[in-house]
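User: Before I run my own analysis I want an independent prediction to cross-check against. Here's the chain; please return only the C-alpha cells and, at the end, one sentence I can use as a sanity check.
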Amino acid sequence: MIYELCKDDVKPLESETAMDEIKTLWTDCFHDTESYSQFYFTWKTKENTIYVIREDDKIVSMIHLNPYHLKLRKKTYPSYYVVGVATEESYRRRGLMRRLLIKSMEEMRQKKIPFTYLMPASEAIYSPYDFRVITVQKRYVTSIYELMNTSLIKDKEESTLQKKEVESEAMLIAASVETSEFQTIVLDKDYLEDGVLQEELKELVNFANEILALQEEIYTIRDEYYYERMIAEMKTGAGEVIVIKCNDVLIGYGAYSIEQGNVYVLESLFDYDKEALVLQGVLNRVKERIESLNLVYDRVTETEEAPCIMARIIHVEEFLKQLRAKQPITLQVHISDEYLHENTGDYLLSIDQLSCTVTKLLKETRDFIPEVSMSIAELTEFCLHQPMDGKLSCCSTEHYSVVDEKMNYIQSFTKIHINEIV
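Assistant: C-alpha cells:
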C-alpha cells in the first residue's frame, strides 16, 4: 500500500503511475542490478507499506516498511524493516526524510510495534532519530582454492589440517563424513518437483525455527513463503538455497549469492558443530566453475566488523513487557522520547524471571520518584545489549549502588538474529 504524506497527515495514494515513479526513484538512488530490482518489486511491494512525499507533481522522497514477524523470547510480534529510504538528489536537505521517518514511526506506534530496525548505509544518518546498533557483522574471507585444500574438502587421509591450529572442531568433523552420508539438495523448481519442493520447505521451516528458538532471544520467524522469497532473492545473484542432510536428517542450510569475485554466504543455520558441512555444501556447488573466487561468510571469531542492524524502540510498554530479571525487582524509571512523545513518561516496572508488568503513571502521581532517567536511545542500547558508556543517569546519587544492582539484575537481549537484506 502506498501512502502520501501531506503536511502532517497521510492518505492513500491512488495513482496509476505511483509504482513506476517509486521504481524510478529506487533505481536512481540505489543502483541495484535489474534482476534484484525486479525481485524486490515482485516480492516485497505486494506486502509492504510505502510512504512518499510528492512535489512538483511527482514522487521525490520515500520510505518502505517491509513487514516481518519477530519472536521476542516467547512472544510473537509484528515489526517493520525500514528500507528504501531515498530522496531525489535535487530535493535533498529539505527535511523530507525526517518527515517520512518520524511519521512512519508514529504510524508504527499506533500499531503497537515494539521496535523497528534497518540496515544503515551510514550509522550517522539514523543516530539522530535514536536508532542504535544492535548487531554487528563479523566477516571471514578466504579463497575457495585455499579452503578446498583444507580438511573441509580433502579426504581425511590427505589432510594436514589436524597438524595445524584448527579454527573449529567442525572442520575435522567434516573431513570424516563419508560421501554416502552427505547430501546436498538445491531448493529450486529446476531441480525438484513442486510436491517434493514443498515438503523440503516445510521441513526447513520447522528446522530453522527450532534452531533459532534454541539459540536466539530475538529472531525473524520463518515460514514457507519466507524461503520461497529467499530462493528468488538468491537467484538474482546467481546463487541458491541449499539444505544439507546426513543420513536423510536435515542438519543445516545455506543461502549464497555470487557477486564481484566473491561467494557470499548470506545465511547459514546448522545443528551444533555442523558449520563446516554447510560450507562444504556451498563449495560443492560452486567449486567447478569459480575456484578463484573468495568465500565470504559470518564468523564470530574474526576481526573484520561493521554495523549490520540498527534498531529503535517504538512502543515502550509493549517492548518492556518482554524484559526479564535474574531475581524479582521493582524499578521506577523516567523515559524521554523527542519524536514519539507518547513514550515520554514515568514507568513502574515489576520484573522477575518470567514476566514484566509495566505501569505508565499519570502526571498527577506526585509521590513517584524515578530511580533512573533514560532517553529512548539509551533504553534501546540497554535492552538490546550494547554498552551504555556511562550514559545511564541515576536520579539519586544517594541510592546509586542500589539502583546499579537492580539494573544488573535485568537480562538484556543478548542473542539477536536479524540478518535480512530487505
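Sanity check: The CA atoms of residues 13 and 213 lie 40 Å apart.
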